[in-house]
Write a structure and sequence with these properties.
Elements: H1 5-21, H2 29-49, H3 55-70
Length: 79
């Protein structure tokens, strides 16, 4: 099993739960889980190369993007 599989599965379950409750729009939950984790890993990698970056502000911005991407209120090409 890939070392990230448990993490991907956990995130996927969160996204599926949000879809089931109507809080999240319909999208491929596995794709979003992998994208979510990749974005977090990229954030840390970027910060390690640019320690002057405000990591808290970056994380808030990234979380805002993710929330907007999955929100049932933001209709994208799939929604």
């Amino acid at each position: 099993m890939h070392t990230s599989e448990l993490l991907f599965s956990g995130l996927e379950d969160i996204y599926l739960g949000g879809q089931a409750s109507g809080e999240f729009r319909q999208f491929d939950a596995r794709v979003m889980a992998v994208t979510h984790q990749a974005a977090v890993e990229a954030m840390i990698a970027y910060w390690s190369l640019h320690p002057e970056v405000d990591l808290d502000a970056y994380a808030r911005s990234l979380s805002g993007l993710l929330v907007h991407a999955v929100s049932s209120e933001s209709r994208g090409a799939d929604g």
